[in-house]
Amino acid sequence: MESSSELVAFPLLLTPIESNYRACTIPYRFPSDNPRKATPTELSWIDLFLNSIPSFRKRAESDGTVADANVKAEKFAQRYSEILEDLKKDPESHGGPPDCILLCRLREQVLRELGFRDIFKKVKDEENAKAISLFENVVHLNDAIEDESKRLENLVRGIFAGNIFDLGSAQLAEVFSKDGMSFLASCQNLVPRPWVIDDLDSFKLKWTRKSWKKVIIFVDNSGADIILGILPFARELLRCGSQVVLAANDLPSINDVTYPELIEIIAKLKDENGQLVGVDTSNLLIANSGNDLPVIDLTRISQELAYLASDADLVILEGMGRGIETNLYAQFKCDSLKIGMVKHPEVAQFLGGRLYDCVFKYNEVLS
Fold this sequence. Notes:
The chain has 367 residues and is an alpha/beta fold. It has 14 helices and nine strands. Helix 5 runs parallel beside helix 10 and helix 6 (148-162) packs across helix 9 (200-209).
């Protein structure tokens, strides 16, 4: 399942890791809860994963790389439903009690055991092609904003707008299958500030006062998310003199961009001089994070990324799975930014915000 080499802890997590880090933001249960009885929170999250099954089955059915895809897709739906129903009856079954990492891992396991490697490949390729054709235009619109603080806010809004392309959310998968997503319209239509967690003003202040020497960005989805959201922001960091490391998944999971896909995307976006619309990319690195899920446990990353990250001074976790559901409260030895859109009602309720609200959580570490 994992990449062949051993996974290690992210070197910038606050130590001791055992007492400072847990890859789960929303507690599904407390020590006082009955271990044999599912909690209301566990039940509502299991239902959320149950509700995602039809859209996953539909993608699996149309996977041309798998023989008898429709039969196997039906098997996936059956098996995964059974596992989730088991967890409702006995939360300690299937390696439980459940959290979002286990629920994601079990879904991937069932898919992979049936031979499904990448059921979202077709839609990822289509969305990447669309976003690549819009990249230059989005970059020029940003470059035209002379005020540095306004340009930064526009880039951040672009990250949120891009992050809407998430087929792991049942509601968004529905919207997407109807009419696709217009990136620029999404930028205009973000919920108004202040967002549910909104540290943008202090981040802007920091941005104008200093530049980070090395930035690690854990990226999320394919299409508009990586190409129109993250890459214009990364390009701006490069322009300010930072080295940027984009950490992408080892294996496919939902519509998240993978390491090989990201290398291909960047190659297509660079001009003949190896530049991203006039910005030198010699300080841009792509790393394999070693991860194979749409969420991330930072005690299990690739050695390559651990090596590259050891001297970074800003860590960015982007997207709901990595930035909100698993690592919102993760503490680092350096500055950190968690940025993502709230796309599950359960997350909105936990944070006390609105559905499609935005999280921009910036923590500065005073050296």
